[in-house]
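> run fold adenylate kinase
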Amino acid sequence: MYWVLQLLEEKMRDNLLFGPPGSGKGTQSPIIKDEYCLCHLATGDMLRAAVAAKTPLGVKAKEAMDKGELVSDDLVVGIIDEAMKKPSCQKGFILDGFPRTVVQAQKLDEMLQKQGVKVDKVLNFAIDDAILEERITGRWIHPSSGRTYHTKFSPPKVLGVDDVTGEPLIQRKDDTAAVLKSRLEAFHKQTEPVIDYYSKKGLVANLHAEKPPKEVTVEVEKVLS
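> ok
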C-alpha cells in the first residue's frame, strides 16, 4: 500500500494512493515520485532504522517488538512525523504501508493537522477482484535476474522458461489464488473503509485501474495537476 503526501511550493498538498494488491500502485508510485521529486518512506524500513539508530521512538518500538507485541499506531505516526522533517522530504513523500485502517488514518490526519497541513486528495485505484486475480496469478519471474512475465499480457517464448537463459520460471508465493484471496479479504475488511473515511471528506478521486499503465498515468497526472 502506497500513500503519497506531496508538498508543492509553500503550500503542502497531501495526496494518498490507495488500492488493493495488484491494482497498479507499485507501477505508478515511482512515476509520481520522480515527477514531483518526492522521497519514499516505507514504514517497515523506518522502524528498523529508528531501532538501529536508538532514537527515543526506536527504543520504544524495540521494547514492543522484543515482547512480541505490535508497534503502536502512535509510535509509527511519530516516526513518520520525524521522517517528514528531513530535507529530502520537503517537497513531499510517498508513504508505503500506512495507514491501513481508519484509526491509523485518523491518527495520521491528527499529526498532519498539528503541522498545519491536511490531505488534499485520495487516489483510489479502483479495480474488480476478478481482474486482479487474472493479473496476479498470471505473473511468473526469473529468480536470478528478476525478469517478469505474464501468461496473458507478456508471456515467455516457451511456457515456464526464461527467454534469455532458458532457465525455469517461478511463481512467487504471494501470487497464488489462495494467497490473493486472503489478502483481498483483509483489504476489503480492514483497509477499504479508509476510502469511505476520506470519501466523507470529499477527497477521493476514483481511477480506472483496469486500464493500461500509461492511461492510468494520464489519469493520475490530471488529478494531481
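The helical segments are 25-36, 43-53, 56-66, 73-84, 102-114, 129-137, 177-199, 213-224.
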